[in-house]
Amino acid sequence: MNVVTLKSLSKSYGKKQVVQDISLTIPQGAIFGFIGPNGAGKSTTMKMILGLVPPTSGSIHLFGEDLSTQSRSTLVSSIGGMIEEPSGYAHLTATENLKIVQSLLHFPAENIDWALDIVGLQEAKNQKVGTFSLGMKQRLGIALAICRKPSLLVLDEPTNGLDPYGIEEMRALILRLAKEENVTVMVSSHVLAELEKIATHFAIINKGRMIFQGQRNELFDQHAPALFIRTNHIPEALAAIPTATAVLEGIEVPAIAEEEIPKVCATLLHAGVDFYEVSRPHQSLESIFMQLTGH
Fold it and tell me: Residue limits of the ABC transporter domain (predicted)?
């Protein structure tokens, strides 16, 4: 089941087109990494999914239902979101902030302690938000987003401004929500190394247009570095693997998926070619992003 389906979604402000003909799907249970340069249209797309701004054209389906003016109030009750900066009243405590949300959304009172416990703010629940660190405010923002126990959580730059310890905490929190609370998470971040560790699916947007969307392994397989095989029998290796090219001390096999590596090795062995090393450099999400966006 797809939790989110966008079809030919566009958004313009006057003559400026911010999002252009985007289509994507987010399957249930995914941690969906949504990445792109500043100004690419990420936040606008997330706001449209949350029903905060209407699209200029195209359609949004949430949980299989069309998001419209009539269905919005029902559908958004199953969605939590934090866009750009965490909200909260500085002069109130964490608990008091959540009680305000409870009065508006009418979720069970026990959800307040549940949400504070999930984000690690139980011990600070009676502390005024104005005294919180940035990391604590980010966690409060997520508590405000999940207090209704949503099926879909949309997070825009949840690690913004956090130190390495805070980023690690946020990563653990997102994993916990996905694995233990069965929440589908759509998350954007410029900290690509962190998204690489947790995301099961990716979409890459640039200048308002989608340039990739799919599963994690699809993205990395499409941009896998060449496989280096060190051998003293280069002519024989090239004959066995016609797609390879000769390099210093061996051969390189381009564009090969990870699961194909054993087959390449078996082919060389079957051809009687001795080899002494099989390796390739790690392809990071950041390097793939640079290639695709030109940034």
Answer: 4-232
Q: Where are the alpha helices (DSSP H) in the chain?
A: 42-49, 72-75, 94-105, 110-118, 134-146, 164-180, 192-198, 216-222, 234-240, 261-270, 285-293
Domains belonging to the chain, first-starting first, are 2-218 (3.40.50.300), 226-279 (no CATH)
The token pair at 66 is 């069309």
Q: Is 8 left (phi over 0), alpha (psi -120 to 50) or beta?
A: left
Which residue's entry shows tokens 């209407």?
54
* C-beta of residue 40 within 8 angstroms of C-beta of residue 20: no
- What's the gap between Cα 59 and its chain centre? 21
Condensed to tens digits (0 to 9), the pLDDT of residues 210-248 reads 999 999 989 988 888 899 999 999 999 999 999 999 999
- 8 A C-beta contact, residue 157 and residue 82: no
Distances (CA, A) of 129 to 28, 70, 96, 135, 157: 33, 35, 10, 11, 20
Output the CA angle 117-121-127, nearest 5 degrees. Answer: 135
The CA distance from 268 to 288, in Å, is 29
Distance CA(283)–CA(195), nearest Å, equals 14
DSSP count for the chain of H helices, then E strands: 11, 14
pTM of the model: 0.84
